Amino acid sequence: xxxxxxxxxxxxxxxxxxxxxxxxxxxxxxxxxxxxxxxxxxxxxxxxxxxxxxxxxxxxxxxxxxxxxxxxxxxxxxxxxxxxxxxxxxxxxxxxxxxxxxxxxxxxxxxxxxxxxxxxxxxxxxxxxxxxxxxxxxxxxxxxxxxxxxxxxxxxxxxxxxxxxxxxxxxxxxxxxxxxxxxxxxxxxxxxxxxxxxxxxxxxxxxxxxxxxxxxxxxxxxxxxxxxxxxxxxxxxxxxxxxxxxxxxxxxxxxxxxxxxxxxxxxxxxxxxxxxxxxxxxxxxxxxxxxxxxxxxxxxxxxxxxxxxxxxxxxxxxxxxxxxxxxxxxxxxxxxxxxxxxxxxxxxxxxxxxxxxxxxxxxxxxxxxxxxxxxxxxxxxxxxxxxxxxxxxxxxxxxxxxxxxxx
Length: 407
Hints:
Blueprint: E1 5-15, H1 20-30, E2 34-43, E3 46-56, H2 57-73, E4 77-82, H3 85-93, E5 99-106, H4 111-123, E6 127-133, E7 150-157, H5 163-177, E8 180-185, E9 195-198, H6 209-217, H7 220-231, H8 237-246, H9 254-261, H10 269-278, E10 282-290, H11 291-301, E11 305-313, E12 319-324, H12 330-343, E13 351-355, H13 361-366, E14 369-373, H14 377-382, E15 385-387, H15 395-398
Parallel strand pairs: 9-10, 9-13, 10-11, 13-14, 14-15
Antiparallel strand pairs: 1-3, 1-4, 2-3, 5-7, 5-8, 6-7, 11-12
């Protein structure tokens, strides 16, 4: 860089004015200045605009004078700073550092939550490049919109001193301050996820279908006792599943239809599926539940694939107490995730898995982005990302969607 070159950072603030950026860049263009960096944000009709430009020192006085006249005419404040070339080169070198996306999500985002998260970022020697709001503006009266959502996304750069410790600190903080958080490396895979696989029971629907069937068969307590035994690790999933299905023997298949039409759908499913389908994602249900109910959701919301368990039905339309084919357990879900990625010809890092139970952990850890949704404590503790404060459409914010895109 020769001695006649100056680097000038111009910071503009004040009421947002139509044509402001045009007026300023036209002045720079007349003097053949080179724009090295530019960024703009608008918060409640107030603009913050920064332009870093390079110019010949013999012209800098005239440029600054014209910029001052232009900004004064448009009633905004301007500040100029001369940037040392060495400082600029150091900033350029930072472009090669890793970038991470931190997503904070909840019914509302508080100053305390942001302060604690950014303190962890600073402790890890990372720099915040940008902060943007993904949700619409929060209502003044929270009581009027109890289902409102708040989400902000932080773009940070650098190499954390201990990423595992940072992840753990985020998850502990989120649990203590009642919000959700996601930490993702901002690489090519994050920007081109293509396949998302969901558990069904207690994820897409707010119930366990086998419990609903058991109640209709009059064996609800027995089925729940087996489930609890499995959760304590006394029996494995396959044995638990076989014993519970056996207790459903004799139940009329018409009961399944009635239960399907009255399934309690999880908050946000309709919105989530509408956006995913419009955006070209492939979607799948991988469930340890039953195919009948998975197919009902497929027809209702447009899922592309359903893999679950088939109940055997006799010639009289009664459940036999047996199932057909292989049981879809945790290992099978992981295998199906990989199979679907191959079928869709995508890298496993482009996949997303969402689930709540222990049998979802294999596919959560196998996928490029595993999200524990309103999960059991063991699952949440093992997952890198979780959503516990809002509906399942919160997944969209972890993918970088803004509310303004989701109309």
